[in-house]
């Protein structure tokens, strides 16, 4: 499954993108069409609008003159054939007249018997016969459109710069991931060449911390904003710099020019081309970074959340450049006074649809909508994405550059194929036992699939479909998955979640309506998703989790225990669990017993916030008001603080005489504090210290 995912994803996407490189309009046809528009073909117009084409395309003399120009101005049969196809497309698009290429060639052959050189009289009066091309006059058109063609080719080079940029980022990420996974080893009592002052400062300053003290802020008390980590911010900064440079540099204006003979209009025209092409180049990365089955998650070891961050910034760049593209061309046709003429073209109308939908999608993707109603957000987001691709298809199906759209379709189909196969490979329809633990906690037990190790890794999550109409069987929802170590459930996976709005609230209501503590519902599971963190080379592991966020850390701890038992190694594991009240421990005591029985030092810290009328202040573990309880087993410690603990204190109490890995899971503020505390330890560490955040965002 993993190999299929990587190979199929990479090959299909690559094949789609390569096709986008070769599609460009015919420069020969454009030269000839513009040359012939200087003559009066009975249309009283020298413009290139729809009204002019509706008059010229039925005129066999005009068709014969343009096609004879093709034959006389090029010796390359493929270039000439392309020109014929271009003319056929233009007449079909602008005048609804379809001339097959063989018909156009027949018209040219017939016109060759009547060709005449243009005279001064012909320039001033309506033509009634086909004409030859004057070589000296045509040179002006040749030079003008070669210049425009060169500018379009330059814009395509900038366009591909985005692909090369992200390819470079993924390549570096892959190298670093494999280096961390396979090269770094711990020798000489955990002192390694990867813990010198330079490496420590690099990790302390750049690769480990958040850009700001928090990764999430709430503006005006209602609008949540996500802040990238420092390493993500560096990549985004270079991406933004390239986007600005690609949009503002490299323009060469050449006058006089038949296409645009005004400096400002030629510049605006080139900007319109450049931003439109660059916007198109960002569509495939935007789609690829947002799909579930992104093969680069495994290659780079980056989290799903990291790729969602790149997905958002690519989308922002795409939308901004698309807006510039639309604004430039709208301004141009308004000044020309031809807006009503252009507005009837299908590609123009679909371009408006694409611009509007892209902005609506960007606005609707704001965190406030995701957090308030996730399922509704996801449904609308997918719908907007489909409408956007349809609009871009009809916007460019007569202009070229369709390879970028084909690529997006390939990405979408690839993701759906892998999703469907994933459902089959994880066992298809399975019975799930859903148990109501209390008014807000639910536990789901699902049988493991055949060859379960191939479709599970610690810290992963499944997207689960509950096959019940009341539970919205057409929707899937992501849940962290852990092995169940309870008696009688060793062949099962368990999901634990706190109910909110959406599908989790529906599940809770369903249990209430059934008036039963447990019910069995058929489910489909899709996955596993997420990134597998390399917990292999440390001597000590410290897991700090909050509330129901314990399940990713629990699955990691279980995995280390099982591997230690198999390899005969002994690791030190400390599991710190911060909960609202002691009921959490009572509900999951059976799960925790497995950890205790295998030598894990368990600390349960009870904040007891429900008994307080105000938001509690932070308290230290040594606070005099704290009550410490110790069970019969010396490995279990219960601390009742009546306040939230200082995460930095939990981290700082760790013995750092051996290589240590910290793993955090819980609310964002929780993991932010933990990341900051671990960064401080790394600064002066003499042993290898790592931090991993077990979280996902869909």
What do you see in this structure?
This protein is 53% helix and 14% strand. The two termini are 22 Å apart. With 698 residues, the protein is of the alpha/beta class. Helix 10 (230-248) runs antiparallel to helix 11, helix 10 packs parallel to helix 14 and helix 12 runs antiparallel to helix 14 (304-336). The chain folds into 4 domains: 27-133, no CATH class; 155-196 and 227-420, Up-down Bundle (Four Helix Bundle (Hemerythrin (Met), subunit A)); 427-529, Translation factors (Elongation Factor Tu (Ef-tu), domain 3); 540-609 and 635-693, Rossmann fold. Its cofactor is FAD.
What CATH calls the topology of the largest domain is Four Helix Bundle (Hemerythrin (Met), subunit A)
Strand content: 5-15%
Q: What's the overall average pLDDT, rounded? A: 84
What is the percent of helical residues?
A: 40-55%
Instruction: State the strand order across the main sheet.
Output: 6-5-9-3-4-8-7
- The tally of structural domains comes to 4
Cα(first) to Cα(last) distance is 22 Å
> Major β-sheet, in short?
7 strands, antiparallel
What is the CATH architecture annotation of the largest domain?
A: Up-down Bundle
**General form:** elongated
């Amino acid at each position: 499954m993993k190999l299929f995912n990587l190979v199929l994803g990479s090959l299909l996407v690559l094949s789609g993108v390569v096709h986008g490189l070769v599609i460009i309009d015919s420069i020969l046809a454009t030269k000839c069409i513009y040359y012939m528009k200087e003559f009066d073909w009975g249309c009283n117009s020298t413009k290139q609008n729809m009204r002019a084409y509706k008059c010229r395309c039925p005129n066999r003399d005009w068709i014969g003159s343009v096609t004879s120009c093709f034959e006389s101005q090029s010796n390359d049969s493929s270039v000439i054939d392309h020109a014929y196809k271009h003319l056929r497309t233009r007449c079909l698009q602008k005048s609804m007249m379809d001339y097959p290429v063989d018909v156009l060639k027949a018209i040219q052959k017939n016109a060759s018997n009547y060709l005449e050189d243009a005279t001064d009289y012909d320039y001033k009066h309506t033509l009634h016969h086909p004409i030859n091309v004057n070589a000296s006059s045509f040179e002006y058109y040749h030079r003008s459109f070669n210049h425009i063609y060169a500018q379009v080719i330059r814009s395509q080079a900038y366009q591909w710069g985005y692909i090369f940029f992200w390819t470079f980022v993924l390549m570096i990420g892959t190298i670093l991931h494999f280096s961390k996974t396979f090269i770094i080893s711990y020798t000489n009592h955990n002192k390694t060449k990867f813990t010198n002052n330079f490496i420590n400062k690099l990790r302390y300053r750049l690769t480990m911390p958040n850009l700001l003290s928090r990764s999430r802020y709430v503006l005006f008390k209602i609008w949540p904003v996500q802040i990238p980590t420092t390493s993500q911010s560096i990549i985004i900064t270079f991406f933004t710099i390239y986007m600005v440079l690609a949009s503002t540099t490299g323009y060469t204006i050449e006058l006089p020019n038949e296409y645009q003979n005004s400096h400002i209009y030629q510049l605006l025209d080139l900007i319109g081309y450049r931003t439109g092409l660059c916007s198109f180049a960002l569509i495939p990365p935007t789609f690829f970074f947002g799909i579930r089955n992104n093969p680069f998650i495994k290659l780079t070891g980056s989290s799903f959340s990291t790729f969602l961050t790149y997905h958002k910034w690519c989308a922002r760049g795409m939308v901004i450049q698309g807006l510039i593209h639309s604004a430039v061309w709208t301004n141009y046709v308004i000044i020309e006074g031809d807006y009503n003429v252009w507005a009837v073209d299908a590609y123009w109308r679909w371009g408006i649809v694409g611009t509007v939908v892209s902005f609506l999608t960007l606005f609707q993707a704001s965190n406030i909508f995701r957090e308030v109603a996730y399922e509704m957000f996801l449904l609308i987001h997918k719908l907007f994405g489909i409408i956007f691709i349809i609009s871009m298809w009809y916007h460019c199906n007569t202009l070229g550059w369709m390879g970028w759209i084909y690529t997006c379709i390939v990405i979408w189909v690839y993701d759906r194929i892998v999703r469907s196969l994933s459902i089959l490979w994880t066992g298809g329809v399975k019975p799930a036992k859903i148990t109501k633990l209390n008014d807000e906690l639910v536990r789901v037990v699902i049988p493991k699939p055949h060859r379960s190790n191939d479709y599970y890794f610690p810290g992963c999550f499944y997207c689960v479909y509950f096959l019940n109409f009341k539970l919205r069987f057409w929707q899937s929802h992501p849940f962290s998955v852990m092995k169940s170590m309870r008696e009688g459930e060793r062949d099962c996976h368990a999901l634990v979640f706190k109910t909110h709005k959406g599908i989790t609230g529906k599940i809770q209501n369903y249990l209430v309506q059934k008036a039963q503590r447990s019910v069995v519902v058929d489910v489909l599971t899709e996955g596993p998703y997420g990134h597998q963190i390399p917990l292999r080379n440390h001597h000590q592991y410290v897991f700090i989790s909050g509330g129901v966020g314990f399940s990713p850390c629990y699955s990691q701890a279980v995995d280390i225990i099982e591997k230690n038992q198999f390899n005969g190694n002994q690791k030190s594991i400390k599991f710190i669990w911060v909960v609202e009240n002691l009921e959490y421990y009572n509900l999951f005591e059976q799960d925790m017993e497995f950890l205790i029985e295998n030598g894990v030092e368990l600390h349960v810290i009870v904040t007891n916030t429900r008994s307080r009328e105000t938001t509690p202040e932070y308290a230290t573990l040594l606070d005099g008001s704290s009550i410490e309880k110790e069970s019969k087993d010396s490995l279990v410690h219960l601390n009742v603080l009546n306040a939230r603990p200082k995460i930095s204190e939990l981290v700082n109490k760790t013995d750092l005489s051996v290589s240590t890995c910290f793993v955090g899971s819980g609310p964002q503020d929780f993991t932010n504090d933990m990341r900051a505390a671990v960064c401080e330890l790394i600064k002066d560490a003499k042993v290898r210290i790592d931090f991993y955040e077990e979280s996902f965002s869909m």
